[in-house]
Amino acid sequence: MPRLLIAGATGLTGRIVLQRALSDPRVALVIAPTRNALTPHPKLINPIVDFDALPVDADWWSVDAVICALGTTRAKAGSDAAFVRVDHDYPLAVAKAARAHGAQTFALISAIGANAGSRLLYNRTKGEVEASIAALDYPSYTIVRPGLIGGEREEFRLAERVSEATLRVLGPVLPRGWRISPAENIARALIEAAVAAAPGRHVISADRLA
């Protein structure tokens, strides 16, 4: 049974991943580094960290698999540089530290349209982080590319609320890849990728998450 590290365990999808991992009998132990303490659980190790200064020599990096659900928006981050730091630099730092301690499997939330050559900051950053982590040669690497993520967020985001409402109405007539990607479905895909640890590089597209 794998030891699983979850980065981003307090976000919309990360919270569901954490809940699923803690209740999944196939997962022996969950390590969830966060800025603030989580609710204690017998199967949970919760290091309190600063993602700008991760303790890369800590022994809790010794895991079998990593799920990365770190991410933000340009508006919430406040600047292009801050967005890139959260969506590229933090996931890459986590991936490097875990790989250096022997992790074999990595599952990443990216986004539909991820493309390192894109002129759009969001799509380009997602594509660049996919490529940066691929260069670390994880034996099992899964990229999950959802569309608009559906679920109950802690913070109010007007644009996302409007988009989600629109897509829910149009969903039945839209191609599956353009529909909402429920956070529950994304979390399930991430957990399965981490536990199965299938060799090679795999991409789970938005049409499989609708």
Which features would summarize this protein structure in a list?
two-stranded parallel ribbon, 210 residues, alpha/beta, Rossmann fold, seven-stranded parallel beta sheet, single chain
Secondary structure topology:
Elements: E1 3-7, H1 12-23, E2 29-31, E3 44-45, E4 65-68, H2 74-77, H3 80-100, E5 105-109, H4 121-134, E6 140-144, E7 149-150, H5 158-170, E8 181-182, H6 183-196, E9 200-204
Parallel strand pairs: 1-2, 1-4, 2-3, 4-5, 5-6, 6-9, 7-8
Helix pairs in contact: 1-6, 3-4
CATH H level: which superfamily?
NAD(P)-binding Rossmann-like Domain
Strand count, sense and barrel status of the largest sheet are: 7 strands, parallel
Count every beta strand, where a strand is a DSSP E run of 2 or more residues. Answer: 9
Strand order, main sheet: write it out: 3-2-1-4-5-6-9
Total DSSP helices: 6
Shape: globular
CATH architecture: 3-Layer(aba) Sandwich
Describe the structure.
The protein starts with a strand and ends in a 6-residue tail after the last strand. The chain has one domain (about 5-210): NAD(P)-binding Rossmann-like Domain (Rossmann fold, 3-Layer(aba) Sandwich). Strand 7, helix 5 (about 160-170) and strand 8 form a beta-alpha-beta unit. The radius of gyration is 16 Å and the shape is globular. Mean pLDDT is about 90; it is low at about 160-165. With about 210 residues, the protein is α/β, with parallel strands linked by helices. Helix content is about 35%, strand content about 15%. Helix 1 (about 10-25) packs across helix 6 and helix 3 (about 80-100) packs parallel to helix 4 (about 120-135).
